[in-house]
Amino acid sequence: MNLHEYQGKSILESYGVAIQRGVVVDNVEEAVAKAKELSASTGTEWFVVKAQIHAGGRGKGTVEETGSHGVVLAKGIDKVEETVKGILGGHLETAQTNGVGKKVNKVLIAEDVYYPGESEPSEFYMSVLLDRANERNAIIYSTEGGMDIEAVAENTPHLIFKEEIDPRVGLQGFQARKIAFNLGLSGQAFKEMTKFVFSLYAAYEGADSSMFEINPVLKTSDNKIIAVDAKVTLDDNALYRHKAYAAMRDKTEEDPMEVEADEAGLNYVNLDGNVGCMVNGAGLAMATMDIIKLSGGNPANFLDVGGTADAERVEKAFRLILQDKNVEAILVNIFGGIVRCDRVAQGIVDAYKNMGEIPVPIIVRLQGTNAVEAKALIDASGLNVHSAVLLQEAADLVKSVLS
């Protein structure tokens, strides 16, 4: 589950990570009042107004309706209202929104932390994530903060460092100090960075997250180390342990079809192909998408109906798939282990009749318990449903109906 910046920062702060302070607003009317409260509590005179969407590159992104960027510096309280108006309610398009602007429902008004002092501010990059290949958590960091980290990795890979954490002992003091040293810090900033690294790693582990990315981590002009941004992904499977975090879910930022599927208890991921998939089991779903590709089609979705493919569940799955206007055929590939194939077949027939005429051909491949009876049910239904026994046979049928 992805979080907004302000939500990620609230988790960081609860673990002792120093953050750029701010207030969230969802309407222009309260923006100035909240900015004044922020000024009174922090002493800031300039304000950074940040669009809150689940996408990176907001600073370079553009609001379609106004031409404003997604992150704008308001140089004074008198500029806050105008700046918020240019972002809030508009559609922000960034390099990560796939050419479609995402509506900005909230903005974060944050304090200016780039104030003058005894030294120049410095920006760093830091993230904590799981290195699956090595089965360890890893801290990725760089001196090139505030930039597109993918571009840094491609153009100057020697400026990206990695520290692996042994799960048996956790993050060690020498590792935190090594990170601070590689970032070129000394004195008070060095001490602040080691503390920052420990607190960040504690937040990553304590929140059961998949990723904490801070870009940039800022060394202020008075040698404080703070998180200016926060991109956080939590492990969905652990949310039952974190009710407060689960409540942070923003469904407006997610694909509506995927939200609908989740509420129906279906595992669904929308893709950009032309063949809908209905499968039970993630591994079988991946194999099904492969065979569709090999047959000349492209999968339109990943849909795992689970072990209870009854008529109601199958109907919900069909309705989801058919919301995608690019779907030209549907391949149902069910292995009858927990659920009997004849029951699935009857569910398909019943769902088809309940929905009326389905405008695209359906290929059904059922294997496992009572597969023969299931094929007989499909063949005798008189519906626009093609039955298959072998996976290759199903693929050939997909190719046939698409040609």
UniProtKB/TrEMBL annotation:
One of its GO terms (molecular function) is ATP binding. Pathway: Carbohydrate metabolism; tricarboxylic acid cycle; succinate from succinyl-CoA (ligase route): step 1/1. Residues 278-395 form the ATP-citrate synthase/succinyl-CoA ligase C-terminal domain. GO terms for cellular component: cytosol; succinate-CoA ligase complex. PROSITE patterns: SUCCINYL_COA_LIG_3. Mg(2+) binds at residues 215, 229. Binds 1 Mg(2+) ion per subunit. Heterotetramer of two alpha and two beta subunits. Succinyl-CoA synthetase functions in the citric acid cycle (TCA), coupling the hydrolysis of succinyl-CoA to the synthesis of either ATP or GTP and thus represents the only step of substrate-level phosphorylation in the TCA. The beta subunit provides nucleotide specificity of the enzyme and binds the substrate succinate, while the binding sites for coenzyme A and phosphate are found in the alpha subunit. This is Succinate--CoA ligase [ADP-forming] subunit beta. The gene is sucC.
